Amino acid sequence: MSSEAAGDRRNGLLSELSTESRRYMASYALFNQAVADHLKLHPTDLQCLNLLSLEEGPVTTGRIARLTGLTTGSATRLVDRLERAGYVVRERDAVDRRRVLVATVPERIEEFGRMWAKLSGGWYALFEELEDDELALLIGHMRRTVEFTAVQIARIRGGELDSPEAEGGV
C-alpha cells in the first residue's frame, strides 16, 4: 500500500472513530439517564453514587466536589439529595469531630450493586470473544480517555474554549 493510500485509510479510520466515539458517548449518556430515571435520581447523582461506591470509606463533601467537578455548594446539594434518597448518611469524623464525612449506606449500595450485576451480564458477553491483549487495549483506551476527559473538562471550565488559540486543543 502506498504511503498516500495508507494516509487516506488512516484518515478514514480516524473519521470513523470520531463518529463512533460520539455515538458511544451519546448512548452512554442516554443509558445513564435511563438508569437514573429507574432509581429516581438525577444523572449526576447517579454518577456520584457510582464514584462513591469505588471509594474506600467515607469522604468529605470537598472530596465529592473534586470527584464530580462540582462546586462545594453544588456537591452539598447533591449529598442532600442522596441522603434524602437513602444512599448516604452524614457522620462526624471520629478523629476530627469538626469534620463531617459522607458515608454510603451499605444496604443501598448492595441494591445498587445488584442492579449493576443484572445489567453487566450483557456487557461481559460483549467481551468474551476478545483475546487478553484486546481487552488490555480497551482498558488502556478507557484509562487514557478518562485522563483526557479530565483535561478537557478543565479546559471547558477554565474558559479556554473561548480563546482564539483553543482551535488545536490538547
From TrEMBL:
Gene3D superfamilies: Winged helix-like DNA-binding domain superfamily/Winged helix DNA-binding domain. PANTHER family: TRANSCRIPTIONAL REGULATOR, MARR FAMILY (PTHR33164), TRANSCRIPTIONAL REGULATORY PROTEIN (PTHR33164:SF106). Residues 10-147 form the HTH marR-type domain. InterPro entries: ArsR-like_HTH, HTH_MarR-typ, MarR/SlyA-like, WH-like_DNA-bd_sf, WH_DNA-bd_sf. It comes from the Bacteria. CDD domains: HTH_ARSR (cd00090). GO terms for molecular function: DNA-binding transcription factor activity. This is MarR family transcriptional regulator. SMART domains: HTH_MARR. It comes from Streptomyces sporangiiformans. One of its GO terms (biological process) is response to stress.
